[in-house]
Amino acid sequence: MFASQPPPVPCLECGASVPQCELRTHVCDWHQWLDYQVLSRREELGRIENDLGAYLASPRGRFELWYAERERERRDGGLAA
Q1: For 4-15, what is each residue's pLDDT tens digit?
Q2: pTM score, two decimals?
Q3: What pLDDT, on a 0 to 100 scale, did the predictor assign at position 2?
Q4: Which helix (H) or strand (E) holds 10?
Q5: How far apart are CA 64 and CA 77, in angstroms?
Q6: For residue 14, what are the contacts with CB-CB under 8 A and spacing of at least 6?
């Protein structure tokens, strides 16, 4: 009979499936970590996108956009990119 191995567990940081015996020494792949962080926060990121859009559509947001463009043009000497 073969000894049963415990099933792999997901890394809490990157979501990778890691054998339990390697969990303490596991090093997350940066790209996998980033993908996992974005995926796990997709609802929050969606809310931020909606909130930013609503702010930029408001009178204050439109002023901020205008002012930022004005300052950028002034800093760049009025040259359009």
Answers
A1: 788 999 999 999
A2: 0.56
A3: 62
A4: strand 9-10
A5: 20
A6: 28, 29, 32, 33, 36
Q: What is the mean pLDDT of the chain?
A: 91
Q: How many Cβ atoms from other residues are within 10 Å of residue 40's Cβ?
A: 10
**Beta-carbon count within 10 A of 36 CB:** 19
What six digits make up the tokens of 71?
A: 């300052």
Rg over CA atoms, the chain: 23
Q: What residue ranges do the domains of the chain occupy?
A: 9-40, 42-75
30-35, long-range: CB < 8 A, 24+ apart: none
Say how far apart CA 27 and CA 50 lie, in whole Å. 35
Q: Would you state the structure tokens that stand for residue 80, as one six-digit string?
A: 């359009």
Q: How confident is the model at residue 77 (pLDDT cuts 50, 70, 90)?
A: confident
